[in-house]
Write the structure tokens for this entry.
Amino acid sequence: MRSISFNTVKKKVKAAIMDAAFIAGDDLMASFRRALAEEESPLGKEILNQLLENAEIAKDKRIPLCQDTGLAIFFVEIGDEVKIKGGLLTDALNEATKEAYGDAYLRKSACNCFTRKNTGDNTPAIVHYDIVKGDKLKIVFCAKGGGSENMSRVTMLKPSDGRKGIEDFVVQRVWEAQANPCPPIIVGVGIGGTFERAAIIAKKSLLAPIGKRNSDPELAEMEKSMLRKINDLGIGPGGLGGRITALDVKVIMEPCHIASLPLAVNINCHSSRHAEIDF
Amino acid sequence: MKILKPPLKREDVEALEAGDKVLITGTIYTGRDAAHKRLVDLLDSNKPLPFDINGSVIFYVGPTPSPPGRPIGAAGPTTSYRMDAYAPRLIEKGLRGMIGKGPRDANVKEAMKKYGSVYLGATGGAGALMAQAVKKAEVIAFDDLGPEAIRKLEVVDFPVIVINDTKGNDLYIENVKKYKKG
């Protein structure tokens, strides 16, 4: 067994959460520049330039990229030969969240559903675990804003709806969302599994670098097809009209029940903030 | 580029057209979901609002906490449709401008026309950039709501674009139409 200390996990995760709030990823910055080159609308170009400038200010002055610093979401792959010494892994992630959101002056956005009273420290974090072989621990943090999450949907299609039914639903969802989720967006599509599994893999699909195509040729083709159709909608940066409505579309597909075709569309805003921490 | 200096008169906003780029300098107030519910609850019970709504501009934002030495953290707009249920009541009381992102519903657009108010779009997800235009921030009501408390902001050249004017025009609808294929 390999032993990793609770405090080591907490410390590294805390630092990663803070950086993610202030520093836009290289893939995201590159996608803004590509979008700027392709955008035809003058207003759309202006918005994209503002996003590039925003990222510079955020990095230089350590001001969050967006005031919605999100709920804290973690995807954890823990090797079957790893033991966390000194406490529970979930507790380490929650403590890292609490400290990072406090110390870095990030917004605490977690609240009670009915009273709307803020929990005060942005916990509980939302954690998804996978047990894998080996002695490694990989934690991917994702700060997910509410505006784009609100535009996301899960649906149970009929098997006969097939690929066309899936593409139509995804494109229609983006159309209905319009300017709400802060376009240019990144669209995560989870196909298969069950009701809840589709949503989890849709969110997981958003973690892959922008511009990287699926390794499955059919799914890669679907990603390209949906991206083209979404960008034909004309919503554009900021929803003010233009060519670039989405920076990318990501698909993960898993087997499903013979009666079902579960589909989840998880929309991410352009402030796509994540960080990978490897132990 | 047009300049707005709140408090605004009806004719100030009637002079604006969808698509106009505007810089705001002066006092604006923050308010989002929970604060809107409380404002409308106060109106329902005939109690005074915590600021003079007549001629005012509300910015739909829940900023990040101010770090030492800065007036505010990141401060970009939140999605406006969640305030649609409350906005017409405030517009009726003289609210002249709302700053946010995303489309408004028919009732809000109708109230804007009837009472003279405009909906101004700010760039979503540009919270660090927008914060540069905020020079002062002070919580004036509902402190217990944390990020959702009402703040009085002093802004200089705060950049927005007119989405809905008082004549019923909608910049989102008009512009998306221009670029939609098929």
Q: What stands out?
A: The domain at 2-179 of chain B is CATH 3.20.130.10 (fumarase). DSSP finds six helices and seven strands in chain B. Chain B touches chain A through 46 residues (CB under 8 Å).
